[in-house]
Amino acid sequence: MMRIFALGALLGAGTVQADVAVKSITSPGGLSAWILEEPAIPFTALNLMFSGGAALDPPDKRGAAFLMTGLLEEGAGDLDSQAFAAEIEALSASFSFDVSDDTLSISARFLTENRTETLALLKTALIQPRFDPDAIERVRQQVLSILATKAQDPTDTAQRVWTEQAFGDHAYGTSYQGTESSIAALTPADFLAAHQKLLVRDTLSISAAGDITAEDLGPILDDLLGDLPAGSALETTPLQLDIPTGLTVVDMSTPQSVAIFGHAGIDRNHPDFFAAFILNTILGGQGIESRLTAEVREKRGLTYGISTVLISKDQANVMLGQVASANDRINAAIEVIRDEWRKLARDGVTAEELQAAQTYLTGAYPLRFDGNSQISRILVGMQRVGLGLDYINTRNAKINAVTLSEINRVAAQLLKPEALNFVVAGQPTGLKEE
Prior knowledge:
Shape: globular
Number of strands: 13
Oligomer: single chain
Structural class: alpha+beta
Order of helices and strands: HEEEEEHHEEHHHHHEHEEHHEEHHHHHE
CATH topology of the largest domain: Cytochrome Bc1 Complex, Chain A, domain 1
Number of helices: 16
Largest sheet: 6 strands, mixed
Distance between the termini: 24 Å
Number of domains: 2
Helix content: 40-55%
């Protein structure tokens, strides 16, 4: 659901060094890309990200994009699934194909000496996927097995019900992996339609990092991607969320209950996003002892872990949390969560909490950039959401610029304890649906 540069160049004094040499290029054919040239190792990481994703599935074809994406590595051109896999291995390369509600992402990792052959193989996968019947059925059964496993998992079940309630009839309200009935009904024509809809140049973001020059990259991209249809830029309309409040119990025979909770969030491009980002870290984020961890886990021993996260989708934003506790203790955990939500909205954070969160977030940021693969992945995501080339070097300054008065204003505006919606999967005692 609601499921980053060589170190030597970036790590120093706990912050990302200035003037990281990321370049923006435009190919002769008009494709835009970001590149970091790092010739020290004869290896390159290339990332492609198409906007649209599984949310473009027709309502009765949910899962088509997910299954189609899985089939992209199951044979292409003259190569069946086994021959395609053998070719990748012989080239010492790797491909990855992933889809989410809003994106379809493709990554390639290859040695400089095998660049030409690897990119030719990738082009075949993009342009000439086979969608062989035996591969379709094999991947279909894999997806059905995934869905069956998730149906028995309380975390997945609680997430499914929460998203259904939050997003209703929108595609976000159902799993991008589809349902048992929708997956079973998909045909080769559905995969071809998903391929033609999603793999288009006008929704594409591109990044590369490693042993490749800006001069070489442009012609390479034109050859790799020039045969894809142009498509058209996506137009997205923000959803008017009507998330219910209260508590829903989904009965499952498990020794502990899992609660998913949250309400509307904040857009990634909102002026207050950085304040909200720090606020979430203090409330329930990872890396430091958050308030919820301190109160629910450390002081009361009600859980092994609790967390919250800001989720930004193309058409909706939510603030979501998760906790698991014994069936006879989940009620107490929920009461503490509600109480801490109210306190933080009413009283805000302390100067010490703000400083600790800023120190952690700025110090941890450089650790994300631990190789060309991570660098390329981060760059393509930055490009897609409209962050500038200078973001890597200005991000920590934006974190440190948030003031106590600013974050507490945002706490009062963003945190809505009365709007919290809880979905609990398990057999909790002492809980009644609201």
